[in-house]
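Subject: Sanity check before I submit

Could someone independently write out the structure tokens for this chain? I want to compare against mine line by line before I put it in a report. The sequence has 105 residues.
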Amino acid sequence: MLKTITLENYEKVLSTKSTMLLYFWSESCGASRILTPVIHRLHMEYDDKLLVATINIDKELELSKLFQIKSTPAVYILNNGKLIGKAIGVKPGAFYRKMLKKVNE
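---
Independent answer below. Compare away.
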């Protein structure tokens, strides 16, 4: 199961792994519904290598402001707490794999 990040746990969660994929989504966003299965597959593939976590911006408005989310779906890749890549909108799984591969090079 994917980790869900909330305002209450985000500092603890973000400090647990050096590389993470954060998936910002909205229940009312059709594109988020399309991308969610892709994110779940990435989670299954990379579970032992990085943290894949979701943030529902409808419920976590403060986090969406903190990360300056203006559109969903949005995927942020962080390494040691620093933003190293982001993508807005629906992309294929290969796009995210390529982003993650750059982290490990």
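---
OP: Matches mine. For the report I'm noting this point. The chain has a mean pLDDT of 91.
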